[in-house]
Structure prediction request, 191 residues.
Amino acid sequence: DFSPVREDGSRVIVSYGYESVDEENATWLEVYLYRKQQAVVTLDVVKAAIIGDINARTDAKILSGSCCILGHISPVLMKFHGGKGLASLGGTILAFNPLVFLLLLLFEIVLGFSMDYVCIVPVTGSVIFTMIYALLTGDPIGTAILSAVSLIILFKHIENFKRIQNGTEAHISFLWKKDQEIARIRKNGNT
Prediction:
């Protein structure tokens, strides 16, 4: 139960104009999970950046960052059901070159909002970073490693692209048009 606690220790059952306890608890849960998600994403970026930054050699940064990405995607302790590698990719890029990270981040924000899909960002980001890495370093081994990681990231997003094709993938605008997005997804899911 994520409802607020009064000074006397009792819980607020319905407040702030909510119609039901379920509606209020769902809202508190959304806030709690959003804050938890922000912390996890930040830690994923920092983890990959620190591990990559420990290594002085560029190819070692790419190898260790790629291991972070793959560990994020397929964690052993979670029976290989992890995330999709975006935050760890960001940390790897940050460790490689902070300026490249900022420029690619800005580009991906514009691309994500203009296409209105989040799933575009990790796929295009991994491919574009692989090309940038190849151009800046000329390192064939690091480029091959990043190419393999890009293919894995693409593979992890195939279901998202199928949902885009079916009209059931949530848009970024879900964040501020929640009801409209839910209605659109339900309508397209029933056709």
In short: The helical segments are 21-54, 58-73, 86-96, 98-115, 120-137, 140-156, 158-166, 178-189.
